[in-house]
Amino acid sequence: MTHQRLGARLIEFGGWEMPVQYTSIVDEHLTVRKAAGLFDISHMGEFLVSGPGAESFLNGALTNDIRKLSPGLGQYTLCCNESGGVIDDLYAYRLSAEDYLLIVNASRIGIDFEWIEKQLGRSPHKGRVQLRNASDEMGAVAVQGPRVAEFINDCFPGDSTAGTKVSKASELQKNQIGQFNFQGKPVWVSRTGYTGEDGFEVVAPAESIIAVWDTIQQRGKLSGLKPAGLGARDTLRTEVCYPLYGHELDEETTPIEAGVGFFVALDKGEFTGREKLAQQKAEGVEKKLVAFRMADKCAPPRPHYPLWSAANESARIGEVVSGTQSPSLGVGIGMGYVPPEFGKVQTVLNVEIRGQRATAVVVPKPIYRKAG
Amino acid sequence: MSNIPADLKYAKSHEWARVQGGEATIGITDHAQHELTDVVFVELPQVGKTVKAGEACAVVESVKTASDIYSPLGGEITAVNKALGDNPALVNSDPYGQGWFYKLKLSNPSEAASLLSPEQYGAQIGG
Lengths: 372, 127
Fold this sequence. Notes:
The structure holds two protein chains of two kinds.
Chain A: E1 10-13, E2 16-19, H1 25-34, E3 36-40, E4 45-50, H2 54-61, E5 73-80, E6 86-96, E7 99-104, H3 109-121, E8 130-133, E9 138-144, H4 152-155, E10 162-163, E11 177-182, E12 185-190, E13 199-205, H5 209-220, E14 225-228, H6 230-239, H7 274-283, E15 288-294, E16 306-309, E17 316-325, E18 332-338, E19 348-353, E20 356-363
Helix pairs in contact in A: 1-6
Chain B: E1 9-10, E2 15-20, E3 23-28, H1 30-36, E4 39-43, E5 50-51, E6 56-62, E7 66-70, E8 75-80, H2 83-86, H3 90-93, E9 102-106, H4 118-124
Antiparallel strand pairs in B: 1-2, 2-3, 3-9, 4-6, 5-8, 6-7, 8-9
């Protein structure tokens, strides 16, 4: 249970002091849903993988088929251990023919880098791949919301200079990345995000990131842009059921169990974890990630609250991994792992909240879907 | 700046008490609601329950976290604010009025002397 004394709004996250909220989580959340929000995501890690062997090496280390990426394109992917457990989930961008950028979770930077280095040491491609952890040299922001396209070109004017070639940033399509000249420095702008809204993520040299932040804040003001913290980032991603490492994903959980099997390309050939993942895909899983919403007005579900069968009072079936009050829907929502027989939509579950059981109903993912 | 009414007593843990004879009304301070932001649920104690000073007896839920509320004074719960069931945001909009939590029949009215004065509480929160 996340009981916390009243107080601080800054939290330590992956070794960074990060803002949880600027105004309020609900205000920032709704601002992103209807206008635009600006997030500092400089805590995230950046690895550069390059060389003639980079594609083949990454294809053996990550679950998605990286050969599908042409220069200027990115994909969601995962890195698994031999038993299929998730080392991390990440975004892989192909910046040019032989250069890849991996964006990894802050809390996993050290573990990931060590893991990938170890994989490379054993790889037949090792002499033809350079691997570098650039996390300390780069900062990043995310600008998210339906009105972002109104001002993104004012922030990064002109043609892209590398990656996907466009004459303005707003021409980038989902998952495309382009390099732009920002006050004389190269920055990467991609049409990606973690909120379920349209938007962009910007990776820039650390010394430029404050200027990037200030520029976006200034240019976005007329479109209703506000700074948003990690609190809103978490409620936004929970509503659309995007996994967060340490909640939905860990080394004992596979992508198949987590419902992200779409990003596991079993048909591409050998990669770390493939055997276990192929077996699970063929034979089924013992636990499955479900999304639920509370049936009645009650305290919001929180991570680690026990999940119980509604049909059999003595059957504890799992645990909540993410839970919150949904600012968009006004009810408690969450995700948790349960045996597959409890995973069907409309199954009634009980969430134990401080010793009391409250009724929840399994719903399709995403929990929140944009109207229209 | 936080609002700290002069006629109330305060606990270090950010609750207020309005003591009237042998009874007290309890809530959380303006500073506390401001720090919590959007209150989405309040779990109140049962009427008739006896609580000790300093005992966790209610929970206030914001979007992000659940926070324990510690009774600044001991006694028997005589009433709880049912309006918070439908509208927990009253804690944000009117923390010293419609956002009250519960009323107590005090077991030991002299306990109130150990609570913070408005000036002391103001100094604690740096306001």
